[in-house]
Design a protein that fits this description.
2 strands, disordered N terminus
Length: 257
C-alpha cells in the first residue's frame, strides 16, 4: 500500500472527526483479522508514523483510544501489546461505567436482580441438559463448599466456585465471563457482609437443594431453590447499605464537587 494512500487515510476523516479516527479503524481491523497477532507488540511509533504519514501526536492519540477499547495494552517505556478482543474485553471495557452505576440509588439491587434472572435460566438449563461431567463438577464443587462451612472466608470462595459451575454448563463463554463480572462488580458488598458458620450452613443447604433438583432433572424445583437462595442472600447484602455505607458514598460525592 503506497504512502500517498496512507496519507489520504490519515486526512480523510469525517467532518468533525479526529485525524486519528481512520488510523484507529485501520489498526483495529488489523487486530480483528489477525494481521496484527494477539500478544505481540504493535509496530513502533516511528513505523506507525511512516505507515500512516501521521504525526507522533496523532499516533499516540490513536494508540490511547485503542487501549481504552481494550485492543492494546499500553505500558510505560514499552511498545503496546496487541490484545485481540474477547468477551472479557467487552465486559472490562464497561466495568468502570458499571461501578459508577452501582453508586446510584438502586444500582446494586438492579445488578443483583439481573444476576437472579440469569441464574434462574442457568439452573433450569442444567436440570434439563447437564451431562454426567457437569453433574460431577457440580457435585465436587458442592463437596468442597461443604468442607469449608466452618471457615467463612474459604466458604465464600467455594460459594463463588459452586455458582461458577452453573455458568459453565451451557458451554457458552459469555456466561462464564459474566460470572466473573458479577463476582467482581458485587465483591465490595459481599466483602462487607456479616459472615458466620450459621449462615454458611443456610447457604450450603441452598446449594444442596439446587444440586439435588438438577440431579433429579426437576427444573421447577431447581429454579425455586435458586430464587429462595438468592433472595435470602440479597437480604444479607442489603445490610451493607447501612449508615456507614451511605456516609461513605456521600463523602465520595462531596469530594468530587
Amino acid at each position: 500500500m503506497g504512502q500517498s494512500h496512507h496519507s489520504q487515510l490519515a486526512e480523510a476523516h469525517p467532518s468533525g472527526g479526529r485525524s486519528s479516527d481512520p488510523i484507529i479503524e485501520q489498526i483495529q481491523q488489523q487486530i480483528l483479522s489477525g494481521r496484527l497477532p494477539n500478544n505481540t507488540p504493535l509496530p513502533s511509533e516511528r513505523d506507525l508514523m511512516a505507515q500512516f504519514s501521521a504525526s507522533r501526536t496523532v499516533i499516540r492519540e490513536a494508540v490511547a483510544t485503542l487501549a481504552s477499547r481494550g485492543l492494546v495494552e499500553a505500558r510505560p517505556r514499552y511498545r503496546p501489546i496487541v490484545r485481540k478482543p474477547g468477551y472479557d474485553t467487552a465486559l472490562n471495557s464497561v466495568g468502570s461505567i458499571v461501578q459508577l452505576m452501582l453508586k446510584q440509588q438502586g444500582g446494586v439491587e438492579s445488578l443483583f436482580q439481573s444476576r437472579v434472572f440469569v441464574e434462574r435460566g442457568l439452573v433450569r438449563d442444567a436440570a434439563l441438559a447437564a451431562d454426567r461431567g457437569d453433574i460431577a463438577a457440580l457435585k465436587e464443587a458442592l463437596a468442597v463448599n461443604a468442607a469449608a462451612r466452618k471457615d467463612s472466608e474459604d466458604f465464600f470462595r467455594t460459594d463463588v466456585a459452586f455458582h461458577g459451575v452453573l455458568y459453565r454448563i451451557p458451554r457458552n463463554p459469555i456466561f462464564a465471563t459474566l460470572h466473573i463480572a458479577y463476582t467482581d462488580w458485587l465483591a465490595p458488598h459481599w466483602s462487607q457482609m456479616e459472615r458466620s458458620p450459621e449462615r454458611n450452613e443456610i447457604n450450603y443447604a441452598s446449594h444442596l437443594a439446587i444440586y439435588t433438583a438438577i440431579l433429579e432433572r426437576d427444573p421447577d424445583a431447581a429454579e425455586e431453590a435458586l430464587v429462595t437462595h438468592l433472595t435470602t442472600a440479597w437480604e444479607h447484602v442489603r445490610e451493607t447499605f447501612g449508615p456507614k455505607w451511605r456516609a461513605a458514598q456521600e463523602e465520595k460525592t462531596d469530594g468530587k464537587l
